[in-house]
Amino acid sequence: MKTFTAVVERDADTGLFVGWVPGFPGAHSQGETLDELRANLREVVEMLLEDGVPELKSEFVGTQTVEVA
Questions:
Q1: Which of 3, 5, 6, 66 has an alpha carbon within 20 to 30 A of 58's alpha carbon?
Q2: Is the pLDDT of residue 8 over 90?
Q3: What CATH number does residue 35 fall under?
Q4: Whose CA is closest to 55, among 28, 24, 34, 26?
């Protein structure tokens, strides 16, 4: 079992949840709910892994809060 971290945002125009796995080319999807997005991402990643485990080009580290005046 492999675990990947996905970044998730809500699209302001469509209201859909959009997610992608940092550094994993092609590993992105969307869904109307977080559960649908998770299932869609799982399906995409499983499909991409059929071609072998990719060498990730980056690693998710976290988020930062930036304050501006």
A1: 66
A2: yes
A3: 3.30.160.250
A4: 24
Kindly state the tokens that stand for 11.
């699209």
Residue 42 contacts by C-beta under 8 Å, 6 or more apart in sequence? none
- Structural domains of the chain, count: 1
Handedness of CA 29, 32, 34, 36 (dihedral sign): negative
In 10 A of CB 24, how many CB atoms? 20
Query: How many C-beta neighbours within 10 Å does residue 45 have?
Result: 19
pTM (two decimals): 0.84
Structural domain containing residue 10: 1-69
